[in-house]
Amino acid sequence: MIRSIRLQNFRSYTDDSFEFEPGVNIIVGPNGSGKTNLLEAILTIATGSSYRAGDKDVIQFKKSWARLDAVHVETTRTMKVVLENSRISKSYVFDDKHYKILTLAHTLPVVVFEPNNLQLLHGQPELRRSYLDNLLEQTVPEYKGLRKHYRRALSQRNALLKTQNKPSPEQFFIWNLRLSELGGAIARQRLQLVGEVQKVLPKLYNEIAGNELTKTSIGYVSKLPPDSYETVLLQALERSYEQDIVRGFTSYGPHRDDFVVLYNNRPASEVASRGETRTALLALKIFELELLEKLRGQKPLLLLDDVFSELDGRRRHSLASFLQTHQTFITTTDADLVLDDQMQSSHIIPMS
What we know:
- This protein is an alpha/beta fold.
- Helices cover 41% and strands 23% of the residues.
- It has helices spanning 35-47, 125-139, 143-161, 169-209, 229-239, 241-247, 268-271, 274-296, 313-323, and strands spanning 2-10, 13-19, 24-28, 65-72, 76-84, 87-94, 97-99, 110-113, 216-221, 258-263, 266-267, 301-305, 328-332, 347-350.
- Strand 12, helix 9 and strand 13 (328-332) form a beta-alpha-beta unit.
- The mean pLDDT is 91.
């Protein structure tokens, strides 16, 4: 639980402090009042990064540094981001111990429900890949490094594809090999995670919807077979290099994979209504809460950025049962939300 936070040169905040309660904290105010910036600060001090932008973007305009200080129930936490000569450096202090790199053990588990999530089932595959990868970074210690190394190798291969003098197949071999090894590891982790979701998604969906007539399922989508992903990926990269040169990008690998949610064996993106989409998203968020608590051994923070009012009464009620047992932060422009029966005991943080 985060008791308080101080923001210096962070986004729209020059030097401001806020105190929080253990249960539901509602951050209410008009658009542009800094609600989402405060939520972003909570996420950043908990995990070391933001879902909205890169590190340099959190620094206030015309400032060279930003700093966050938080009092957590178990430890004091400080994070500083410095921009010098166009280079970003970050540092962390936990209980007077200094760190340059934030490991999984030093992060706090967090579940974020923000407006872009509403496009998860219908939007671009990149949203779904990021959903899986971000959750894996919070639950698998080596995954963040694995993801970083894959991106670097992919960038190197793509750069080679765009060189003016046509490179030979031999020049691609080391990057093909590296991508296939890293790509196979990423795909296995994603497949395992999707398998865990499938175990609970039908039950969670029907509990929220109150309708057992809809058969829901989730599956990983790839051009490559899961049981021989590395081998087939290496062969595909070697075989497709001529086409990749023409296209200017690498056409095989986990950066091209996806997952699909099915309603009665049909893609949700084709048949799901607005309400059904929100039900599936709530089921996924509740799965995240339960998985993080199980694997990390502590209750995650729950951050709801301007989406609670998007839910109807039944879906609010389904989510409300989790709000009371987790420290929750809700941003809203709807002052009537604080009068909701389920929100009566909430801590209100007014923004102007």
